[in-house]
Write a structure and sequence with these properties.
heterodimer, A: about 200 residues, alpha+beta, 5 helices, about 30% helix, about 10% strand, elongated, B: about 325 residues, about 0% strand
Chain lengths: ~200, ~325
């Protein structure tokens, strides 16, 4: 049987059935419809006793989960130094190119951003920068109250982004783990790092 | 001389009170709708959001009053005035209490029906002169809806007229001393309320406006206070139909038999008016809009025969009792 024919037959049957029902039950249907109007008005009327669904926003704030992707911050390691090593991975990952920074080095070879700028009027809060960051420096927070009257005010500089604590990752310090030699830590002194092996030596 | 001053006072009092009710309805309707939809509604401006009315009025007045270049300007400008005019004229015959009435016409009821019918010109002309297809569809629907519902609106009230033996609204109220007409004329009440809702283009019969199909229907192209006048006209219309429901079916200024004399007539009238208006808002909160053909079907195939049947039966009973 062709599908179309089957459907057509079904529709016709249904229509005949409905026609019959309509003839039999016309009065009943009208009474029922009228009753349903009265009943829905009755039900809606008693809704005035119900609890309100509205959250009165500025006074009452909704719980935001800790992993909410809101305002972006730059965190510091437990020693109070900037975590950011200015690797540009966040800027490269950013789909809307809202991050711009300039890398520089201090006297001991520790990299840090000379400036770090996020244009929040472009930011789409996708969190790719946080994913890309090798040092947990850039993080998204549950804060969403960033309204401004001027677009220019949405451009955050480093001093606006930098916070004083470690954010979501307490205790993590990139330079303590990384094999890079900086001030106060020579090669092989990092956590879980073995002393360097002289590959040219023939001794075991 | 004294009576002239009294008359003038009544005229201006009616005008101001009715416009006040219409203005405060913009707030009351939103709060009540919110109440029945588990929301709060406007509650920020002033205590309980009461200053919302003022905020809205100021906004309306200061918006740019724009006439589209493709509109038929004179008609476009006069259309919103017509609805205000006709509805306010109809308030002239409303008896608020014994003696508190602008004019006591012996054809009061017919005057109301005439003025309510003229209101469609406003909407049809607004839809036509806007030069926009959505407006035109809105105006078209308004005209067709009016033709269908006007027919049995008058017929549904004839039972009341038969029982009272008069077209004078004060006489009709007086005739309800023993029993309110909502009991002997229950079918008339149902048909009149339906027609009244359709007449004033209220939800669920707001097809000329139908914002989810026709943008805003007949007032799509209107802005600022011209739009505001349509808005106020609609709220005045609700007040008017509610007032007539109270007068024709719920004993007007008369309280219920035993407790009636404890409150002044004007309080009874406005109390009932408020309940009727709340009923209209509840109707809006709970019922969906029917399709266009369903609306017509309902008017011609159900309401018209029903009101004719009511008329015949009422007439037969009156004839039987008297003769």
């Amino acid at each position: 049987m062709i599908e179309g024919q089957g459907q057509g037959a079904w529709v016709t049957d249904e229509r005949n059935g409905q026609e019959k029902m309509r003839k039999i039950n016309m009065v009943y249907r009208w009474v029922d419809n009228a009753f349903s109007i009265v009943r829905s008005m009755w039900v809606i009327f008693w809704h005035f006793l119900r609890k309100r669904e509205t959250i009165l926003y500025p006074e009452v704030k909704q719980f935001m989960p800790p992993r909410w992707r809101g305002r972006i911050i730059l965190s510091r390691d437990p020693d109070g130094e900037e975590r950011c090593v200015a690797c540009y991975l966040c800027a490269a990952a950013c789909p809307v190119d809202c991050i711009s920074l300039q890398a520089t080095e201090d006297a001991h070879g520790r990299r840090y951003p000379e400036f770090f700028r996020i244009n929040f009027s472009r930011c789409i809060f996708c969190g790719f920068c946080e994913d890309a960051c090798p040092t947990y420096a850039i993080q998204l927070t549950p804060d969403y109250e960033m309204g401004e009257y001027e677009r220019q005010s949405l451009v955050y500089e480093k001093q606006d982004l930098l916070i004083s604590g470690p954010g979501k990752y307490p205790g993590y310090n990139f330079y303590r783990i990384a094999g890079l030699a900086i001030k106060g830590k020579q090669k092989g002194q990092g956590e879980e790092e073995e002393p360097p092996v002289d590959v040219r030596s023939l001794l075991p | 001389m004294n009576s002239v001053i009294t008359q003038l006072v009544i005229v201006f009092a009616v005008l101001i009170v009715m416009l006040g009710i219409a203005a405060s309805l913009t707030y009351a309707e939103r709060r009540l709708l919110a109440l029945w939809q588990d929301r709060y509604g406007p509650n920020r401006a002033g205590p309980f959001g009461l200053l919302q009315v003022a905020a809205d009025a100021i906004k309306m007045l200061f918006k740019e009053d724009w006439v589209p270049p493709f509109a038929d300007k004179p008609v476009f400008v006069i259309a919103p005035a017509i609805i205000m005019f006709t509805v306010l004229m109809a308030f002239a015959v409303v008896p608020f209490a014994p003696g508190i009435q602008v004019v006591s016409l012996n054809i009061g009821l017919l005057f109301f029906l005439a003025m309510a019918a003229l209101g469609v010109y406003s909407i049809a002309l607004a839809g036509w002169s806007s030069g926009s297809k959505y407006s035109l569809l809105g105006g078209l629907r308004a005209a067709a809806q009016m033709i269908s519902y006007e027919v049995f609106m008058g017929l549904s009230l004839m039972g009341v007229v038969m029982l009272a033996g008069s077209f004078n609204l004060s006489d009709i109220v007086e005739a309800q001393k023993r029993i309110w007409f909502c009991i002997p004329q229950f079918v008339g009440l149902i048909t009149f309320v339906t027609a009244g809702v359709a007449e004033m283009h209220r939800m669920p019969f707001d097809l000329p406006e139908a914002e989810n199909e026709l943008v805003a229907g007949y007032h799509t192209e209107y802005s600022a206070m011209k739009f505001g006048m349509f808005f106020i006209g609609e709220y005045l219309g609700i007040t008017l139909v509610s007032a007539f429901i109270v007068i024709l079916f719920f004993g007007g200024w008369q309280g219920p038999a035993v407790v009636g004399p404890f409150l002044p007539p004007i309080v009874w009238f406005f109390g009932k008016l408020c309940v009727a208006i709340c009923g209209f808002i509840l109707l809006r909160a709970s019922l969906p809009r029917p399709r266009y053909d369903q609306l017509m079907h309902y008017a011609w195939k159900v309401m018209l025969p029903l009101s004719l049947l009511n008329l015949v039966i009422t007439g037969a009973i009156i004839l039987g009792v008297k003769g």
